[in-house]
Amino acid sequence: IGSDDQKLKVLDSIVSAAMKAECEMIAEGVENRKQIEYLATHNIYLIQGYVYAKPEPIENIAEPNPEA
């Protein structure tokens, strides 16, 4: 998601088609607040990317649950 109008038109079309098909969308590679705002205006709230944290091995971010 950037400032390239042509790419935004393509993205808008993809988002529109996914919403019409009632697909759940996950945005990957989100890097800044502007991208989050764009996604929020399109009701996309499943987001991952450097805006939140850099990639880490699972053992660095989660404690195993022995009861699971």
Automatic annotation (TrEMBL):
SUPFAM superfamilies: EAL domain-like. It comes from the Bacteria. Signal peptide: none annotated. Residues 1-68 form the EAL domain. It holds the Pfam family EAL. GO terms for molecular function: cyclic-guanylate-specific phosphodiesterase activity. InterPro entries: Cyclic-di-GMP_PDE-like, EAL_dom, EAL_sf. This is EAL domain-containing protein.
